[in-house]
Specification:
The structure holds two protein chains of two kinds. By secondary structure, chain A is mainly beta. In chain A, about 10% of the residues lie in helices and about 35% in strands. Chain A has helices at about 20-25, 55-60, and strands spanning about 5-10, 30-35, 40-45, 70-75. In chain A, a hairpin with a 5-residue loop joins strand 2 and strand 3. The longest helix of chain A has 5 residues, at about 55-60. Chain B is of the alpha/beta class. Chain B has two domains: about 35-255, Thiamin diphosphate (ThDP)-binding fold, Pyr/PP domains (Rossmann fold), CATH 3.40.50.970; about 295-490, Pyruvate-ferredoxin oxidoreductase, PFOR, domain III (Pyruvate-ferredoxin Oxidoreductase, domain 3, 3-Layer(aba) Sandwich). Chain B is about 40% helix and about 20% strand. A seven-stranded mixed β-sheet of chain B has the order 3-2-4-5-7-6-8, sandwiched between helices. A six-stranded mixed β-sheet of chain B has the order 10-11-9-12-13-14, with helices on both faces. In chain B, helix 14 packs antiparallel against helix 15 (about 450-465) and helix 14 packs across helix 16 (about 470-490). Chain B is elongated. In chain B, about 45% of the residues are buried. The chains are: A mainly beta, B alpha/beta. Chains A and B meet through helix 2 and strand 4 of A and strand 1, helix 1, helix 7 and helix 9 of B.
Chain lengths: ~80, ~500
């Protein structure tokens, strides 16, 4: 059975740019983005959201309730 | 075709959006970037959702950064004054025993101003779970030194570092609580790396599970990052906690008695119906009081009547007023009785204010009275000015000469103590005064039926007060009769 696929979604406007998630990701998917969001923070982005393995590490590190969402993809 | 389902996402215990939060941003919390509050909020929300107790949870928000927790948690919320969360939590969990009470506090709130409330609640083993956020400074007010600030740590108010010789050592809350018998579960966790956060998640789940099973008091202390006030980045603050804070505040479980503690039952809900409370507190006493059919019709009581009884402590001043209030109560008046006395039980000045009215009594304070009973000269000097222009003054002739009064005022003297001594119990002097009052009111104010009823209601009231001492009841009735006879002979 193939490993399940996941997707990470980072809500740009909910991110406060604290960067706790960046070292937490085992796949190093998350990096600092280039755009300032509506709150005035430099939000993080995930360039390759489908490379996510769904460990939830970044979600638990994130202090915001809905800035990071991780989906499990069911074929 | 593939579908997606959320594996990790926004908890349903949070409001969505945060309508209560003022301002345009309704999706985020108000905490600074990188704050540990958000992390712990998420863990608690996840646990509440997992154990399905959202409907009955009462979340007590402290004073501190988490003061606005009620913006976020979609459950019962109380925001309380500084440090009072465990006290309010005690009230909430006892008055509404079906609820699950979560107390969420910071280090300034719990370890400084509210430490007594907290440690007493822990010692009583109140049914609540306390989440203690320890960030080693006062975050909300700008990073001042807190009870949990580490030795030599620089804060706004310890610019040269915390000096343990003058400021003492950081307070180890978990270890202090571990010295108590009652708490069920105590653990210290850190909200730093993911491994630590997963441990913290377990601890939070355990505390909420204990809460659901009503096992008693659980405490989870979370060493929490405060990057703004510690002037560090997210990585630096994690390192600070992992290397420096944990050295002084070691992580780990200090106690877990949840397995051997049986799950508590939901205690019976307390009485909430005001009528039932009245029944419980003021049970109808047998053999006293007339039915509602017996009412006082005298015109004198159509308006509110205020009475001041004064003298020195030990003369039965307060019980005189109390008997008077009891008599009025037994005839379905609204009454208030407010005593005022010195610290001594005997001697010193004593007085009480009684108000009786057919309507509601807005305030028990008496600053002008219709009837003044003065048993000492000093009492008359003190309260004489309060007597209304058409008021009645009763004084003790053994204590003073007949005082001068205004033309409209009536004044009556009675040697109550002498009467009481003749009866054989000096403590009955106050009943003699009530007897004299019966004669006075009977002659000037009451309808004949009510005048006859006065003696009856006195007997009822005094019997109720001294139910267990029938001899005292007899003496008091004798004093009442003697006082009444003596005053009647004066009035003829």
């Amino acid at each position: 059975m193939a490993a399940k696929k996941h997707r990470i979604r980072i809500s740009k406007d909910e991110c406060k740019g604290c960067r706790r998630c960046i070292p937490a990701c085992p796949k190093k998917l998350i990096s600092v983005g280039k755009e300032i969001n509506i709150q005035g923070y430099l939000a993080v982005v995930a360039e390759n959201p489908f490379d996510c393995i769904g460990c939830g590490s970044c979600f638990h590190q994130c202090p915001e309730p809905g800035a990071i969402t991780i989906f499990e993809i069911e074929e | 075709m593939s579908t997606e389902k959320v594996k990790f996402g926004r908890s349903k215990v949070f409001f969505d959006p945060f309508e209560r939060r003022p301002g345009p941003i309704k999706t985020n919390m108000h905490y600074c970037p990188g704050c540990g509050h958000g992390i712990l909020h998420k863990l608690i929300a996840e646990a509440i959702e997992y154990y399905g107790i959202q409907e009955n949870t009462v979340f007590i928000a402290p004073v501190g950064c988490a003061v606005f927790a009620y913006y976020y948690f979609n459950c019962g919320s109380i925001s309380v004054p500084h440090g009072r969360a465990p006290a309010v939590g005690t009230g909430a969990s006892r008055a509404t025993p079906e609820k699950y009470v979560i107390s969420y506090q910071g280090d300034g709130d719990l370890a400084a101003i509210g430490f007594n409330e907290f440690i007493q609640a822990a010692n009583r083993g109140e049914r609540m779970s306390v989440f203690f956020v320890n960030n080693s400074n006062y975050g909300m007010t700008g990073g001042q030194m807190a009870p949990t600030t580490l030795p030599n740590q620089v804060t706004m108010t310890s610019p040269y570092g915390r000096n343990v010789e003058t400021d003492g050592y950081p307070v180890k809350v978990c270890e202090l609580v571990n010295a108590l018998e009652a708490p069920v579960y105590i653990e210290r966790v850190a909200l730093t790396g993911t491994a630590n956060i997963i441990k913290a998640r377990k601890a939070v789940f355990k505390a909420i599970e204990n809460l659901r099973d009503r096992k008693g008091f659980s405490l989870v202390e979370a060493l929490s990052p405060c990057p703004v006030n510690l002037k560090m980045t997210a990585e630096q603050v994690n390192e600070f906690i992992d290397t420096k804070m944990t050295k002084y505040f070691p992580l780990g479980m200090l106690r877990d008695r949840s397995a051997e503690t049986p799950a508590g039952k939901v205690p019976e809900a307390p009485v909430r119906d005001p009528e039932d409370v009245k029944q419980l507190l003021f049970t109808a006493k047998e053999g006293s009081g007339e039915g509602p059919a017996t009412v006082n019709n005298s015109e004198i009581f159509n308006e509110e009547r205020r009475i001041r009884v004064s003298g020195f402590g030990g003369q039965g001043i307060l019980s005189l007023g109390h008997t008077l209030a009891d008599m009025a109560r037994l005839r379905h008046f609204n009454v208030s009785w407010m005593p005022s006395y010195g610290p001594e039980q005997r001697g010193g000045s004593a007085s009480c204010a009684v108000i009786l009215s057919r309507k509601a009594i807005p305030s028990p304070l008496v600053d002008s009275c219709d009837l003044l009973i003065a048993m000492t000269r000093a009492a008359l000097d003190k309260f004489g000015y309060q007597l209304k222009d058409d008021g009645i003054l009763i004084y003790d002739t053994s204590a003073m000469e007949k005082p001068a009064v205004k033309p409209g005022q009536k004044v009556f003297g009675l040697d109550a103590l002498a009467i009481a001594n003749r009866i054989g119990n000096a403590k009955c002097a106050n009943s003699a005064v009530l007897g004299a009052l019966a004669a006075i009111l009977g002659k000037f104010a009451l309808t004949p039926e009510d005048a006859a009823d006065y003696r009856k209601v006195f007997t009822e009231a005094i019997t109720e007060s001294f139910r267990k001492k029938p001899q005292v009841v007899e003496q008091n009735i004798a004093a009442f009769n003697a006082g009444c006879d003596e005053m009647s002979s004066q009035l003829v």
